[in-house]
Specification:
Length: about 250
């Protein structure tokens, strides 16, 4: 049987995480509790999740335990963060051959401040090489990987025009697409028929349907109205995650 291929197109970031008792005020210097770095980016996280869920033992070779192969398409800069990100994906047995290193560009970085008591976080994202993924990059069938993927996975941490171009190309090739619209922005109605599976949380659903976030956070909110709205626009499957509410 031919292998099933999951191709993820999206962001690759290095997370710089500082744990602090509280966020300093303007002009204040505060000693942090701890600092750590690690691989991140919504695209990379999707790829790792797919790879780990595709085999009984996440560390085992896919050829021995799974007929699913995961490929990552993205970009890193020619700095110290790029090679470590690629290495971390390889550790999860992800095909990284289509990750491009962009000269004179930085790798995407997320600076994350986490308050130790409340757990509240603040994130400052520098897209770097992620924004080198342009619509012109995805104009031929081979740009979505060869052979064509069984499933294409997307998010919105690369430029929106690029995502829309990928959706158009995938639709023309009858490739199923799973989209997690995060960070959330309004999508044109023309994009929805190209989305096979739409997975989003409460806030993302509110933004995409122009509803107040406070409205969807109401325990009595009727979610069927939201899912029906997406289905009426052409999405095949809609999943809304509700956090602690299930």
């Amino acid at each position: 049987m031919s292998p099933r291929i999951i191709t993820v197109i999206g962001s690759l970031n290095t997370d710089l995480v500082t744990l602090t008792p509280r966020v300093p005020t303007g002009g204040e210097t505060l000693t942090a509790t701890s600092f750590s770095t690690g691989p991140g980016g919504k695209g990379a996280n999707q790829a790792v999740a797919c790879a780990r869920l595709s085999r009984p033992n996440p560390a085992s070779a896919p050829s021995h335990t799974s007929d699913v192969f995961v490929k990552m398409i993205g970009a890193v800069g020619d700095d110290e963060f790029g090679p470590s990100l690629i290495s971390s994906l390889k550790e999860s047995l992800i095909d990284t051959a289509s990750i491009e290193t962009i000269p004179d560009q930085s790798t995407g970085v997320a600076v994350i401040l986490v308050e130790s008591d409340s757990g509240e976080n603040r994130i400052l994202l520098s897209p770097g090489a992620n924004h080198s993924l342009l619509p012109s990059t995805f104009t031929t069938p081979s740009s979505l990987s060869t052979p064509h993927p069984t499933l294409l996975v997307l998010q919105l941490e690369i430029p929106l025009p690029t995502v829309l171009q990928i959706l158009t190309l995938a639709s023309s090739l009858s490739i199923p697409v799973l989209l997690n619209p995060a960070p959330a922005v309004k999508l044109p109605d023309s994009a929805y028929p190209s989305i096979t599976h739409l997975i989003l949380n409460e806030t993302e659903a509110a933004i995409l349907t122009s509803r107040p976030v406070s409205a969807v956070e109401d325990p009595a909110f009727e979610w069927r109205a939201v899912t029906n709205e997406f289905l009426s626009k052409g999405v095949k499957t809609v999943i809304v995650t509700l956090g602690s509410k299930g």
